[in-house]
Amino acid sequence: MKLPNLDWVNQDSPYLRQHRAGFRLLSFDDELEQAFSRYHITAILVRMRWALLVAMLLMLLFAVLDAVSLPESVRNRTLAIRLSVIVPTLLIAWLATYQRRLRPYLQIIVGGAALAGGLGVAGIIWVARAHDFPLPYEGIILVTVFFYFLPGLRFVTAALCGWLTFFAYLLVEVLSGLPGELLLYNAVFLASANLIGCFGCYFLEYASRQNFLAQGLLQDMAEKDFLTGLLNRRAFSERAERTWRQAQRERQALALVMMDVDYFKRYNDHYGHAAGDEALRAVGQVIGRQARRPLEMTARYGGEEFVGLWYGIEESQVMQILEDIRSEIEALALPHVQSEATGVVTISIGLAYLLPQPHQDLEDALRLADVALYLAKEQGRNRVVSKRPGCPA
Ligand SMILES: Nc1nc2c(ncn2[C@@H]2O[C@H](COP(=O)(O)OP(=O)(O)OP(=O)(O)O)[C@@H](O)[C@H]2O)c(=O)[nH]1
């Protein structure tokens, strides 16, 4: 996938970091690896179900073939392996794909079932050899191809299944006394099937990881402010609208907050635009640290203006959070000689604290927060001012 200009992605984006670091060994940083596992299993779930279903049907088809063509001495044991080991294991794995809570373990469950299938087929060959029945060995190649390409197993799981089955097959043939030249041919064919499978599976997983990163990068571009890494205005508005409706339904209080860096025009004029960007980045980091739970959010609203939302919180708690933001920004001690009083970069904060009413909307709340911010500026900046609807200034 061709990616747009990545200069416009926040440079701290974990997707961008991983994209730049590469992933030849098919592994991401911890946090992204977990997200990728969830993405991957969702992407291949349907294919996994179909693959297991097809494998079960083929096993049953081969069971019918065994029943009509194998001599009695071989038939019963072969059918027992197919019908009481391989098919039930595949069935359990297939049922597991319908259990949401088992999704994190599906690679292991389906990998285990696939391996049971591979070892089962090696067992069938062993039974045939023990009774001197010339059963073709190609079945083991079929299951090998299955491991790598059908159920959506990741590279490591598929390779483990493939090579363990390979060694089990070799052991069977050595113990059964297959002549050396034939053994060599079969081993080379099966090893080749495994190598082709490994290459194919590696590139499939690599492409899947590329898609995952590309999606993450595009989402970051669409939703995050590239300078600070906070949400951008559009993404904030969308999410805040949803949270607003939830607060109305659940009768929970909301804190809507407007924040504005003090005398920022003078800062830019004095220190230059690049230094201004750095200051905004530092301020954004302080603000972002204070909203980590699912229904809390902070965003860059535009220019040197930030916005925040906290859900179902006491006014005293949110005042404490905002006071922490204010004092931490002051404590950054970013020199600002043009700022009256403090001489460092500071921020003014306006809080609208309210229980959303049916006749109100989010815009009303933001306007109220803006009024509180205006008061904070008027009262001397570098402070937090709170307003509730209907309360005079
Ligand atoms: N460096 C930088 N400056 C920006 C950015 N976005 C907006 N600005 C500047 O932010 C400044 C905002 O100035 P004003 O709105 O006049 O407010 P102020 O100087 O902070 O004054 P008060 O809000 O009253 O304290 C302008 O000079 C904009 O050019 C940005 O992304 N980077």
UniProtKB/TrEMBL annotation:
<feature type="transmembrane region" description="Helical">
    <location>
        <begin position="50"/>
        <end position="68"/>
    </location>
</feature>
<keyword id="KW-0472">Membrane</keyword>
<dbReference type="InterPro" id="IPR050469">
    <property type="entry name" value="Diguanylate_Cyclase"/>
</dbReference>
<keyword id="KW-1133">Transmembrane helix</keyword>
<feature type="transmembrane region" description="Helical">
    <location>
        <begin position="183"/>
        <end position="204"/>
    </location>
</feature>
<dbReference type="InterPro" id="IPR043128">
    <property type="entry name" value="Rev_trsase/Diguanyl_cyclase"/>
</dbReference>
<dbReference type="InterPro" id="IPR029787">
    <property type="entry name" value="Nucleotide_cyclase"/>
</dbReference>
<protein>
    <recommendedName>
        <fullName>diguanylate cyclase</fullName>
        <ecNumber>2.7.7.65</ecNumber>
    </recommendedName>
</protein>
<dbReference type="GO" id="GO:0005886">
    <property type="term" value="C:plasma membrane"/>
</dbReference>
<feature type="domain" description="GGDEF">
    <location>
        <begin position="252"/>
        <end position="389"/>
    </location>
</feature>
<dbReference type="Pfam" id="PF00990">
    <property type="entry name" value="GGDEF"/>
</dbReference>
<feature type="transmembrane region" description="Helical">
    <location>
        <begin position="80"/>
        <end position="99"/>
    </location>
</feature>
<feature type="transmembrane region" description="Helical">
    <location>
        <begin position="140"/>
        <end position="171"/>
    </location>
</feature>
<keyword id="KW-0812">Transmembrane</keyword>
<dbReference type="InterPro" id="IPR000160">
    <property type="entry name" value="GGDEF_dom"/>
</dbReference>
<dbReference type="GO" id="GO:0052621">
    <property type="term" value="F:diguanylate cyclase activity"/>
</dbReference>
<dbReference type="GO" id="GO:0043709">
    <property type="term" value="P:cell adhesion involved in single-species biofilm formation"/>
</dbReference>
<feature type="transmembrane region" description="Helical">
    <location>
        <begin position="105"/>
        <end position="128"/>
    </location>
</feature>
<dbReference type="GO" id="GO:1902201">
    <property type="term" value="P:negative regulation of bacterial-type flagellum-dependent cell motility"/>
</dbReference>
